[in-house]
TrEMBL record, chain A:
Description of how the protein assembles with itself and partners: Adaptor protein complex 4 (AP-4) is a heterotetramer composed of two large adaptins, a medium adaptin and a small adaptin.
Job description of the protein: Subunit of novel type of clathrin- or non-clathrin-associated protein coat involved in targeting proteins from the trans-Golgi network (TGN) to the endosomal-lysosomal system.
Name of the featured protein: AP-4 complex subunit epsilon
Start and end residues of each Clathrin/coatomer adaptor adaptin-like N-terminal domain: 55-593
Amino acid sequence: MEQLRTFGRELAMGSQGGFYQSKEFLDLVKSIGEARSKAEEDRIVVNEIDTLKRRIAEPDIPKRKMKEYIIRLVYIEMLGHDASFGYIHAVKMTHDDSLLVKRTGYLAVTLFLNEEHDLIILIVNTIQKDLKSDNYLVVCAALNAVCKLINEETIPAVLPQVVELLAHPKEAVRKKAIMALHCFYQKSPSSVSHLISNFRKRLCDNDPGVMGATLCPLFDLITRDVNSYKDLVISFVSILKQVTERRLSKAYDYHQMPAPFIQIKLLKILALLGSGDKQASENMYTVVGDVFRKCDFSSNIGNAVLYECICCVSSIYPNPKLLDSAADIISRFLKSDSHNLKYMGIDALGRLIKISPEIAEQHQLAVIDCLEDPDDTLKRKTFELLYKMTKSTNVEVIVDRMIDYMISINDNHYKTEIASRCVELAEQFAPSNQWFIQAMNKVFEHTGDLVNIKVAHNLMRLIAEGFGEDDDNADSKLRSSAVESYLRILGEPKLPSGFLQVICWVLGEYGTADGMFCASDITGKLCDVAEAYSSDDTVKAYAVTALMKIYAFEIAAGREVDMLTECQSLMEELLASHSTDLQQRAYELQGVIGLDAHAVEFIMPSDASCEDIEVDKDLSFLDGYIQEAIEKGAQPYIPESERPGVLNMGNFRNQDHHESSHGLRFEAYELPKPAVQPRIPRALLPSTEIVPVPEPVYPRETYQTPVTPIPSNPSDAGSAELKLRLDGVQKKWGRPTYTPETSTSNSTSQKTVNGAAQVDGPSTVNSTRETYASRKLQVEISHEKQKLAASLFGGSSKPEKRPATGHKVSKASSHMLEKSHVPNSSMEVASEKTAPAQTPPDLLDLGEPTSTSTAPSLDPFKQLEVLLDATQDASAANSATSASRSPDVMALYADTPVGIHNKDEADLLSGMSNMSGATARPQPTKGSSKGPNPKDSLEKDSLVRQMGVKPSSQNPNLFKDLLG
Amino acid sequence: MIKAVMVMNTQGKTRLAKFYEYLPVEKQQELIRGIFAVLCSRAENVSNFIDAESIFGPDSRLVYKHFATLYFVFVFDSSENELAVLDLIQVFVETLDKCFQNVCELDIVFNYSKVHTILDEMIFGGQVVETSSSEIMKAVEEISKSFLYPFLLCLSKKTC
């Protein structure tokens, strides 16, 4: 009776889905749910683990109980506890005959194990057996496990069965088999390279689910190798066309959209195939246009499809009409209240501005709204967009904004990313040196060591070399402004190490160069740095070297050197430092101070960091001295290799090494290598090799050391990853490098090309114009946002540009007069240059009626109609284009046997003409009209799809699939 | 491809976690905690998307949806469309709803393995294989039915 009650309960649970769980499990879940703290939860789980460990090891546990234990184990592991003691039991469960138990076993092993686990070997056999099972549910369960657990080595063990299953009568099995094959491909492309054609074949499966699933592997394959799949463009286009015409079963409708997920996948594939391929893209224009028209904007999924359309349009060969529709959709997205849509709009805008930069202008206010939105995700996306549209005219605003945002966030990952973007933009587009240095200072100050140390080195080099111009005056101005700003910044607490290194180096090199600050000021600051950051040896090393330079310059200039007491004590402290590097630097400092002006000038020439150092390896300057010594009776120098005794010494270590083997040596002794002797006078020997820093490049040191000569020519500098363009930079900066952007300035061309967007275009443009006008009359009335918009986007509206840049420069830089001329003149140059570049739109007008009319035969739908009209014989000799294409399509089926029955063909043709609607010529229809009968329509759908895909009669596989 | 699917409640308790790339248990927990921390900090009426690169490594995006006491979280890479994934969550939840009649948090907790079955029908090895809620239901029901037979068999034996 008791048992009966249990069964009754099981039955009740079973009717709810058959996934029965016992009361114990429910209690466990409940008590964990009620746990008040993590500790309490852990305690409960540890108890549970103990119980399970005991119970699971008991002999003869009923299957039902065992299944429940396993579920409990899975649950425990999900909560983050180790359940590895039960893995073997899960593996055992997969051997069970009962489907329920087997499924639970498979579920558990897929969650527990990875493909490298030792227990996998015990499962492979079971999987093999299950793949052959008659029960398709067992096969499905096994296929699920296959994709998770089979590794590269075990693929061959199951591959034959999986391939067999591709032709399984159940669509669920075919679907999973194709995905399993895809998994194999991802794990080891070579293992299934001979089976790739199966993916193409499954594309014509008569179940839409299988077809939709096949798009996943095809997408993957096409991503890796576009060119081999160009022949499928027509197929994908016609599938997409049929999907949009609602030819798939109703089950795939989602929120009144026909199979939107399949549409999205297809659009993604088309985007890949059409990228940079004019011919392929032309085939897509019509269908993509259809999708644009048919999508509804009210539902989320409709917008998802529209977004994918935009991605597709911006990826394929440009078509003005489609670009217009895309721009329309984008403005709809941006105007929407939904943050999701705004996000998508910003993303889409970023894609589209690459092709038609003018559309950014219409949306300037919307973009700025997004920038100020409280939603972090949206903000970041907007920064990404701004990053893409940065040019020299708006770089200041954008980088300033980025830096402000960077300061406000805590996420180190994103901070690093945005910092590197700031650096990149500043290096590329900086309008002035002062601005560049200030921007870099900010970045360094706030992100510090998150930034690549190379950026710091680039900054030092920039300050040292100037901008490659001959104008020494500008260079020294730059340096003194850098020194000034650094002295100010040193007052801040807790500066990052990398930035301090730059500061110390610049202060040492140029601190006293312009005479504005006296040596004691600078040395005092440097001592403070060394003291405040006493735990950072690298910074201390930089500081000491900087001190040495300043004293050397003082001595060389003939001024009295009066060492500060704190400096003296620092030096004394470092003379006894544990770091040999610091110690040596301190000794060098001591040595330099003791020298006379002439010697100092020789070893520490002023402002020579960019000079190349010629190393006299033969020490020829000592020749006279040696001669003198030999004349006095000294022994001439015998090279080490020629000295008999030294040979042993040189190989001493080697011998040591060999002694462990204690055997006779049979191989010849190695040739003695002359040990590299430090032939540079001790006092001059630098110690860069010993410095415990990741990047032992101290640019100033290089005049002493042959180890790290500073790359003075740009090609050497190019080896650095973060490249700073130093050659002829001044000429480049100030001119927009992204030339297509400036084409927007030509408002006339925009009007002709951009018909629909024109509607709201002028209004925003006008508003900014008004702002400028009003600003001219009465200073500073305009709205904050519009100002921002103007400075962000202003670069692209031509007439107002001059006042805008002039205004900005006056705000930004101290020497406005010379600067304001530079951007203006460069703007003129730019606009002159880009004017001829605006002709390309004509070239891009591919989708214009004129061009399409010249090649009407390329339209896939017309082709389809032609095929429908024609008899099969005629179709072979049909239009040139289809004939040229059909061999490719046929290649898919080359490996399948040809077996055509005339009767079937007739059926097929009639069915096809039936379904293809009004365009087809009326024919005696055999089947009924598109009724609600799902099975009927499904079959027909697939018929039509296949016919659309392969407009040809020689299609044996098709018949096999359709008619058994 | 989809990298992970997670369901957690508003208190941060995991209700379902499935990772399509193998990760050790500790790493999984760390990611779940990281995601929950971000989810908590999100205001109402903001977008459903989060940049997950700092948690999940490069090229990962996260879409979440908040239903009653539960967060449904999908993590995926650039080969998926954010809005579409948002609807995929909707499909998942609709299917759960059909399955359990007015699904609530408890259903997911107590029918742990069934939820996994539904998910397995939708997403296979990180790829979305089925997007039709009715097709998924059909498949799941067939599995349930096959479970029911043995019980009926036993029951009839006992009563006879």
